[in-house]
Description:
The structure is a homodimer of 480-residue chains.
Chain A: H1 3-22, H2 34-41, H3 45-57, E1 61-64, E2 68-71, E3 92-93, H4 98-106, E4 113-114, H5 127-139, H6 143-149, H7 155-167, E5 177-181, H8 182-193, E6 200-205, H9 209-217, E7 221-228, E8 232-233, H10 235-244, E9 249-252, H11 266-279, E10 283-286, E11 311-316, E12 327-331, H12 336-347, H13 352-364, H14 367-392, E13 398-399, E14 407-411, H15 418-427, E15 430-431, E16 433-434, E17 447-451, H16 458-471
Parallel strand pairs in A: 4-15, 6-7, 6-9, 9-10, 10-11
Antiparallel strand pairs in A: 1-2, 3-7, 5-12, 7-8, 11-12, 13-14, 14-17, 16-17
Helix pairs in contact in A: 1-3, 5-13, 7-13, 8-9, 8-12, 10-11, 14-16, 15-16
Amino acid sequence: MTSAQLTLYQHLAEDLAESIRTGVLRPGDRLPSVRELRRQRGFSPSTVFQAYAQLEAQGLVQARPRSGYFVRTQRTLQGLLSTPAWSSPEVTPVSISELVFELLGSTRDAEVIPLGSAFPAPQLFPFDELARSGARAMRRLQPAQISGALTTGDETLRAQIGRRYALHGVQLQANELIVTNGAMEALNLCLQAVTQPGDVVVVESPTFYAALQALERLHLKAVEVSTHPDEGVDLDALEALLKRQKVAACWFMTTFQNPLGALMSNARKEALVQLLARHGVPLIEDDVYAELHFGPRRPMPAKAFDREGLVLHCSSFSKCLAPGFRVGWAAAGRFGKTVDRLKTMSSLATALPAQLAIGEYLIQGGYDRHLRHLRDTLALQQRTARALIDRHFPKGTRMTQPRGGYFVWLELPAQIDTLKLHKLAMAQSISTAPGVLFSADQRFRNHLRLNVGHPIDGRVQAALKSLGALAKSPSVLRDN
Amino acid sequence: MTSAQLTLYQHLAEDLAESIRTGVLRPGDRLPSVRELRRQRGFSPSTVFQAYAQLEAQGLVQARPRSGYFVRTQRTLQGLLSTPAWSSPEVTPVSISELVFELLGSTRDAEVIPLGSAFPAPQLFPFDELARSGARAMRRLQPAQISGALTTGDETLRAQIGRRYALHGVQLQANELIVTNGAMEALNLCLQAVTQPGDVVVVESPTFYAALQALERLHLKAVEVSTHPDEGVDLDALEALLKRQKVAACWFMTTFQNPLGALMSNARKEALVQLLARHGVPLIEDDVYAELHFGPRRPMPAKAFDREGLVLHCSSFSKCLAPGFRVGWAAAGRFGKTVDRLKTMSSLATALPAQLAIGEYLIQGGYDRHLRHLRDTLALQQRTARALIDRHFPKGTRMTQPRGGYFVWLELPAQIDTLKLHKLAMAQSISTAPGVLFSADQRFRNHLRLNVGHPIDGRVQAALKSLGALAKSPSVLRDN
């Protein structure tokens, strides 16, 4: 199969998938026949069959013998958050849950099936090639590179990162990039750059627990804003909040939000940036999942629409290339100098060997090939996992169908307490991420984030079955 | 020359150097003759000559034709701080000087002669061997190591670090070590673990500017305690302060303090730990220079005397093996869990490639050989630089003679403003670290820290000469 064929059928598959998502093609609709697509758009039969096979593998369509392909009924989580979080606008001092650390601790244990983990399976990453690149770069290491790297980052790496943004149509200043110890450090530095202790920061609801932890660490207060599982943060709710409440910053994940997987459209991202610019509020954009898109193109970051330098964009290689290498970055707009200085003050610089290894890997090529394979794998795993959840979990369970990343967010029937479920599952060496992790209050007590970034092998299949069975048992019912 | 011979003459040289330092041998005293040493202690003539040559190279003794070797008169900075800092016990909110960043920025410029730098010359470090170790470790990298390292650090590296402490007689719990992004991150995490915004922290006077920066970043207040250039922090002053003032922590550098080079004796370290234990005050111990001792043994850290778990000991490989690799650690005693959690929250984990490279290097052996060579080189450079300062700087200049590290601290005549000197020197592409960097007030306006960790080649020799000439010019005199 040539690379051109690959692109062609994948483009067709994505066009059709997009039509399904946007409702142009609805559940039960028949897909165009091979003959129609050949006549109208010039596709060869083999291209069409390959595209349909991919859509079927993704669970979007099903073949009916002698009738053709039909759009499947999707179980999605549309409209989950019918009560917007901002209607109870508590400004909450954040307090860390022991649970987060228990969860993180459990992922260190190879015996535990990591459905609660925040990382994909390490075997999905090209460690052999990274090792070769790292070895090559290390052999070429010059003492002079050391003092150069005791700054905002290795020049080669920064140039490569900047080049990738430019290819995707995002223009960053070459010297705007500050290399950090993973996105986590970038986010923390950006947060500190725009806040003082006691300030209020807007987060999504549900939000990534690390954002809540960062707020606690810096003695900040959180306001959670309702976030749609498909479209992302509720802009009307946000606007109402900004009119009512002094806010130091927003911390949002605009693409494949953790835990929902929500993807804001370009139009909504642009509207968000404009809204915040009107109020002079900085946006800390956590964009670590963007490369894991199942669609044909990398979604644009909100940073692409930033004209005021108010977007502090953060990302890393930890989820898409090199977990454990701890190479992330910030492009902090008008706060760049402050972030650079905070970095100098808090950890001086980012380790050179990992920067050299990744810089060399990017120059050698192969990153895009790796990403294509990774995306296909994650899409397939999501489909398989969703089918198993569909089969094993209690009636009334709803779940998201993100267009990228490796999380599925479940809403279980209201009487189920997912913290109880988590504890019972841990006793069976299965970790999960219960909903209470993702909010400073008890709003998501019957919700669950599952990691589908690990191969759905027999062990994981059995774990999903066990989880479903546990979720049906009386021991997971709420006390009140 | 065999390794045993090397050890023998070095031991002899160190014994004699110690006698000179402690005053057993005084300026003008004649050293024992070859015959005496052979008779009394069994040394061969060649061992004695080698030892004397080393002492001469260190500037401690001088040969007089046909008379033997005599102890030289030393220009040291004893008694510099005659007015203890604590007598004006201002609790000062810390505010960052632009100067620190200007200084750090200048060290990135290869054209600037880095007398103001905080790092030794990169060519003093075994990058070839580190690169080979790194390449080997990278080729053996297993995906499973990734999740293991997303914790307190790579197990191999932690075991190697723990083993070195044990060899020096410091018993740490194996799991007490948390690997960090350099000592800077370790210190920042430890500081955050024991303070809340607004708290008061005791630092040395003068103190390392990064400590002042860390305090500012965490919205803390500083009290500076008088520090003797030879003996370290004034324990009487500290005790008086602790009785008068609520203090959240002390941040001290007990061995080869930056900028003074002071080395607290074991007895004084133990007394410090006991004093703080009586007051229940944690000690953050910055111990990054201990491996750079010119004497025969690594000075013990205060941590060695800690029975209450109140010492948060921090160190790194950045000054003695691998600058730019950003591998440091904390052994935080009873605060270990808190530091571990803060690390997880702020940067998740430390980059694996650098940990693997150093772990492999330590296993291969050669670290102690490298260190011996590094120490000899730094001692020689210090001697040469001090001789040049002696020759070129204005009458009345006094300077320290640290027993390790790579800084010399100068007290220039009182009417000289070293900030003016710094600016004039920068115009000639010579960086220095003026005294105002090392205190929150203007106490050290006529002081200067010089880095002698770079080979004293023609360029550096000319720079020291130029600096001395500048220091004699009227343009560096104080305005008032």
